[in-house]
Write a structure and sequence with these properties.
Strand content: 5-15%
Bound molecules: alpha-D-glucopyranuronic acid
Low-confidence stretches: none
Number of strands: 15
Number of domains: 3
Number of helices: 19
Structural class: alpha/beta
Distance between the termini: 41 Å
CATH class of the largest domain: Alpha Beta
Mean pLDDT: 96
Largest sheet: 8 strands, parallel, barrel
CATH superfamily of the largest domain: Glycosidases
Length: 677
C-alpha cells in the first residue's frame, strides 16, 4: 500500500524508452564498501537503481561500457587515475561526469570524502527519479552552508512540542539496545537532501538528556546516523549544573560551573566522539539562562563554547528571546539584546535566529538581526512543522515563504545584501555557517502527518544546501519523485502548491496581520482571545484594532521597531507610500477606509483577501479531485480528506475574523460577502 513511508525515495520503476536509455548507461556498478559510508552508498545505489530499472546493476571491479563508478581518489583507483579536479568541492561536494574510462563510456560520481560520494549518489538517483538525461553529465555541487540541521522539539516522554505527526520517533525507552530500522531510514532521507546534523531534544530542554543514561541512548542513534554523515546535537538546559550536577548555581562566570561543563563535555565526547554540540534556548519564555545571574547571552554561550572547543563542538545559541514582562513591542527584543553583543561570542558560537522577529507567522518581514551582527555568524531557524499554518491537515507548501525571506535584501552592505548571503557567510566572510529547521517528523507512517508536508522537509533540506534555489524547482523535483513524472500532473500540482502559502496568509493573517491564532494551540483563529500566561497575549496587542483603525504602528510614532532595519529598508517599511502591502498592518496603523492598492478601502480589502484564501482552498480541492486517476487511491483519499478539512477551517478563519473585526469597526459588510448562515 502507498502509505508514504518511502517519502521521496520511492524508486518505482521507470517506464518506456527512458528506462532503456538509463539501462544502457547503468550496466554495472563499481563501488566499494570498505568503510561504513561507502557501504551505505553502495546499498542505496543498488536499492535505488534496482527499483528504478527493475533490477540492480551487477557489481563489478572493472570499468565497462555503462559502468557507474563511485568513490574518492582514496577509495577508487579508477577515480584516482582520472585525475579529476576535486579541490574546490570540500568535504561534502561531489561531481558527476560522463567520462571515458579505460576506453569505456562510464559515469563517475567522485568526491574528496566518502560523504561527498554519498551525496553524489543521491543526486544521481534523483536524475533518474525526475526523468533527466544521464547522457552527457557534468555536475559539480558543493553545499553553500556548513551545518544543515534539524531541530527536534521532542521531549523525553515521547511528546513532540508543536508536533503534528504522532509521537517522537526516538524510542528512548528501548534505546540504546533496540535500534529501530526506522532510524536508518530517517538518516537516508536526511542524507538524500544533505542534512548533516540533528538536535534530538526540545529546546525547552530537560537536563536529564545530559545524564549518562540518555547519553548512551543518544550515542546509539549517533552510531546509526554516522555513516550517513549526520551528527547528533543536544539541547542543553542552562541550569543543568544545578539540576543534575548538584551545584548551587549555574552562573557562567563561576569556576565550578565552568568545570562542570568542561567535564560534561569530556564525558559526552567519550560517549559520542563526533558529537556536534549544544543548542540553547536561554532566558526566553521562562527558560533559565545567564541573565538570571546578571550575565549576558555572550557569557552564557561562551561558557558552553569553551567546554566544547577542545573537542570541535559548536554552540547554537538562540536569539528567540521573549521575556515575561509586558514589552512595548516583542518584535524588538532580540535585536536589542543581541546587537550590543556582536563580536563578543567565541569562534565556535553561532546565533540562531528565526526568520522573523515574532514567531513563525504565515508571513513576517525578515528578522532585523540579519545583517546587523557582522562579527557573529548567524544561523537561520526555519520551522518546518506548521505551528501557525494549519498543522498537518492544511496543505501549505512553505518553499515560497522561505525563498521570500532568503531573497529579502537587508542592505547591510549595500544593495544585494540578501539574507541568503548572511546565512551562507559570504556577506560578512564567515566560514562557520548554518541553517536549522524545526522538524515536522513523528511516528506517523508518512513521517510528517500528511503527504504534502513531506515536501516541506524536502524543501528545507534543499534550501539548507543551497539557499538560492527556487522553491518552484524544488517542488517540481519533489512531485516527480513523490507522485508521478507525468508533465501535466506535475505542472498542476506544482501550481497548486506554489499558491498555497499565500492562500493561508489570506485566510489567516492578510495584509501584515499576525499572531491572531488561538493562544496556546495556535491552530484556529483567536483574535479576540486574551488570556494565556503572557501579558502580551491580550486581544488587541498584535492587531491594535479600534473603531478608528487597525495595525501595529512600528514607525517612529509607534514602537519604532522599523528603525532596527538598515536605513533603506527602514525607510521602505516605515513609509506608507512604499511599504509592501503584505506588510502594511505589520508596520502601520491605518484607518478602516485607508485606500489600498486595489482601490478598495482597507476593510473591504481585508474581507476580499479572507475570501480569496478560502476560494483558493476550494480550488485546490477541485484540482485534486480531478487528479484522482493519477495518484494511488490511498494517498489520493487522504489528501482529499485533508483538503476538505482545510476548506472548512479556512472558512471558519474568514468568518470568525470578519465577524470579530466587524464588531470593532462597526462597518457594514462589503457588498457580495455572504456571512455564514
Ligand atoms: C514558539 C512555540 C513554542 C516554542 C517557542 C520556541 O513560541 O509556540 O512551543 O517553545 O516558539 O521557539 O522556543
Amino acid at each position: 500500500a502507498e502509505d508514504g513511508y518511502d517519502l521521496w525515495l520511492r524508486y518505482r520503476p521507470v517506464e518506456g524508452v527512458r528506462a532503456d536509455a538509463y539501462r544502457m548507461r547503468v550496466s554495472r556498478l563499481v563501488a566499494g564498501d570498505a568503510m561504513p559510508t561507502q557501504a551505505v552508498t553502495r546499498a542505496e545505489l543498488l536499492r535505488g537503481l534496482g527499483g528504478l530499472l527493475g533490477a540492480a546493476p551487477p557489481l563489478s571491479e572493472a570499468a565497462a561500457d555503462g559502468a557507474v563508478v563511485v568513490g574518492t581518489p582514496m577509495s577508487s583507483p579508477s577515480i584516482a587515475r582520472l585525475g579529476l579536479e576535486l579541490g574546490d568541492l570540500g568535504r561534502d561536494g561531489y561531481l558527476i561526469r560522463s567520462v571515458t574510462l579505460d576506453g569505456h563510456a562510464a559515469t563517475v560520481i567522485a568526491a574528496n570524502e566518502d560523504i561527498g560520494a554519498l551525496y553524489g549518489a543521491f543526486h544521481f538517483l534523483r536524475l533518474l527519479q525526475t526523468g533527466q538525461s544521464i547522457e552527457r553529465l557534468d555536475v559539480r555541487e558543493a553545499p553553500r552552508v556548513k551545518l544543515r540541521v534539524l531541530n527536534h522539539w521532542d521531549n523525553l516522554d515521547g511528546h513532540v512540542e508543536r508536533g503534528y505527526a504522532g509521537a517522537s520517533i526516538w524510542d528512548w525507552h528501548k534505546l540504546p539496545d533496540w535500534r529501530a530500522p526506522r532510524y536508518a531510514d530517517y538518516a537516508r532521507a536526511n542524507a538524500s537532501i544533505g542534512i548533516n546534523g540533528t538536535v534530538l531534544n526540545n529546546v525547552n530542554a530537560d537536563a536529564l538528556v545530559l545524564t549518562p543514561m540518555y547519553l548512551e541512548k543518544a550515542a546509539a542513534l549517533a552510531d546509526v546516523f554516522r555513516p550517513y554523515g549526520i551528527r547528533v546535537y543536544l539541547s542543553a538546559r542552562f541550569s543543568a549544573p544545578i539540576e543534575i550536577g548538584g551545584l548551587e548555581t549555574a552562573d557562567p562566570l563561576d569556576p565550578q560551573v565552568q568545570r562542570w561543563w568542561r567535564d560534561k563535555a569530556e564525558e559526552i565526547y567519550r560517549t559520542i566522539p563526533d558529537f556536534g554540540g549544544f543548542l540553547v534556548k536561554a532566558n526566553s519564555e521562562g527558560q533559565p539562562g545567564p541573565q538570571d545571574y546578571g550575565r549576558s547571552h555572550a557569557d552564557g554561550a561562551n561558557l558552553l563554547a569553551d567546554a566544547l572547543a577542545p573537542h570541535g563542538g559548536t554552540v547554537m545559541w538562540r536569539a528567540f528571546v521573549y521575556s515575561d514582562e509586558e514589552p512595548d513591542d516583542r518584535a524588538k527584543q532580540a535585536y536589542s539584546e543581541f546587537v550590543p553583543l556582536d563580536g563578543e561570542f567565541r569562534d565556535n558560537v553561532m546565533v540562531q535566529v528565526k526568520n522573523g522577529a515574532i514567531d513563525f507567522q504565515p508571513r513576517e518581514p525578515f528578522h532585523p538581526l540579519f545583517g546587523a551582527m557582522p562579527d557573529t555568524p548567524l544561523m537561520m531557524e526555519f520551522q518546518i512543522t506548521k505551528e501557525y499554518l494549519g498543522f498537518a491537515t492544511h496543505l501549505v507548501y512553505l518553499g515560497p515563504m522561505w525563498e521570500e525571506v532568503l531573497r529579502a535584501d537587508t542592505h547591510a552592505r549595500g544593495e544585494g545584501s540578501t539574507v541568503a548571503k548572511v546565512i551562507d557567510g559570504s556577506l560578512h566572510d564567515h566560514r562557520l555557517t548554518g541553517m536549522a529547521g524545526v522538524a515536522n517528523i513523528g511516528s506517523d507512517r508518512n513521517w510528517s502527518g500528511s503527504h504534502f508536508d513531506q515536501a516541506n522537509w524536502y524543501a528545507y533540506g534543499r534550501l539548507a544546501w543551497d539557499p538560492e534555489l527556487s522553491s518552484r524547482s524544488i517542488a517540481e523535483q519533489w512531485v516527480r519523485m513523490t507522485f508521478s513524472g507525468d508533465d501535466s500532473f506535475v505542472a498542476t500540482v506544482v501550481d497548486m502548491m506554489m499558491g498555497s502559502r499565500e492562500a493561508a496568509v489570506d485566510y489567516m493573517t492578510p495584509l501584515g496581520l499576525h499572531h491572531l491564532m488561538g493562544s496556546n494551540h495556535h491552530y484556529g483563529p483567536g483574535p479576540w482571545l486574551g488570556g494565556g500566561p503572557r501579558t502580551d497575549w491580550t486581544s488587541v496587542y498584535y492587531h491594535r484594532a479600534t473603531r478608528a483603525g487597525i495595525g501595529f504602528d512600528r514607525t517612529a510614532s509607534g514602537s519604532n521597531a522599523v528603525a532596527q532595519y538598515a536605513p533603506p529598508v527602514a525607510r521602505e517599511f516605515g513609509d506608507l507610500e512604499t511599504v509592501p502591502e503584505e506588510f502594511l498592518l505589520w508596520f502601520h496603523h491605518v484607518p478602516w477606509d485607508y485606500r489600498t492598492q486595489s482601490g478598495r478601502p482597507l476593510w473591504d480589502e481585508l474581507v476580499h483577501r479572507y475570501t480569496r484564501g478560502v476560494d483558493y482552498v476550494r480550488g485546490m480541492r477541485e484540482t485534486w479531485r480531478g487528479l484522482a486517476g493519477d495518484v494511488d487511491p490511498e494517498r489520493h483519499a487522504q489528501v482529499a480528506a485533508f483538503l476538505a478539512i482545510q476548506e472548512k477551517e479556512a472558512q471558519r478563519w474568514r468568518d470568525a475574523s470578519i465577524a470579530y473585526f466587524q464588531g470593532i469597526s462597526g462597518l457594514p459588510l462589503p457588498e457580495g460577502y455572504a456571512p455564514p448562515p
